[in-house]
Structure formats: C-alpha cells, structure tokens
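Sample entry was shown:

___
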Amino acid sequence: MELEQHFSDQLKHSLHTNGVNTLYSTDQYLRKMLVKFVDSDQLFPQNQDPLLIEFMESGNNTHKLHDIGDRCLFLTGYFYDSLRKMGKGFVDYHYDIGRSAFGNLAGISRTLQSREMYNELSGLFFPLSVAIGDLRLPSLGEKEALDIYSKWVITKDDRYKHTLSRLGIQVDAGNKN
C-alpha cells in the first residue's frame, strides 16, 4: 500500500504540474499501472511478439488491449529517451498503438465509467505520457540533465525541451531545424 500511495502522490503532483485533469477512475488506473511495472517482467514479458502484431491479433481481448496500452503509455512516458534513440517514428509508433488500444477498449466497454476512462486514456495519451515521464525528474542529476540538453541541441525535440524546463533549464527554440 505504501508504494501505491507514493505513486498516487507523485502522479497527482505531476498531472497537476502539467495541467492535466483526469477522472478519478483514470487516476486510479494509472496508479495501478505504475505499481504493476515495478516488476520489469510485466513490462518486458518473455517471448513477446512485436506490439503491432499483438495489437492486430488482440481483437476484443480486453486483457491484451490493456497490456498493450499500458506498456505503450509507460514506455513513452518513463522510457521516452530509450524509444527516442530509435527515432521519432518509433516513439510515434508506440503513441499510436497505445492510443488505439485504449480507444478500442472504450469501444467495447460495457459501462459508461469504463468507456469514459478509456476514452480519456486514449485522448490524453500524450500529456499522460509526459506526466509519467516527469516522475523520473527527482532522480536526474547534472550528468543526465547535460545529456538531455545535448540531445535537445541535436534534435530540438519538444519532449526534451519540456524535461529541461521542468529541471529549471530554459532553452532557446528559435534555432529550430
């Protein structure tokens, strides 16, 4: 319970700081997702097919759609930089599949509350990803901040700019490539 409370407090702060308002059910869903991924085997299961194959084969399997949406949201949030190293298209691929998984869940949900929650997870996928990524901020030191700045200089990636801003480092986007 202590871990759940920690994630709940941190997530609430991050969502507020990023100006993201969510339903209570969405907050609870995200908290449980974060606790689930403390176990890295949940994020990187053995013998896993590529996400697109999993998504295409998921049909109306709510368990698979949950898993796909959760993994995409967590990866694009907490591990954005790892995905970004493979190219912006790889990040967008995860955004699109995650949004679609939650959108499909909204379409097959039986209750209004579930439909609203999954529609919100799909519609706010990017800002939720950013808020989840901001959970890393307290663990970033000067070396990591310099590394992020170097990546921003090369890519002019808005997500890196956001992270630098949250770390108190303002950058000039006037030289955007």
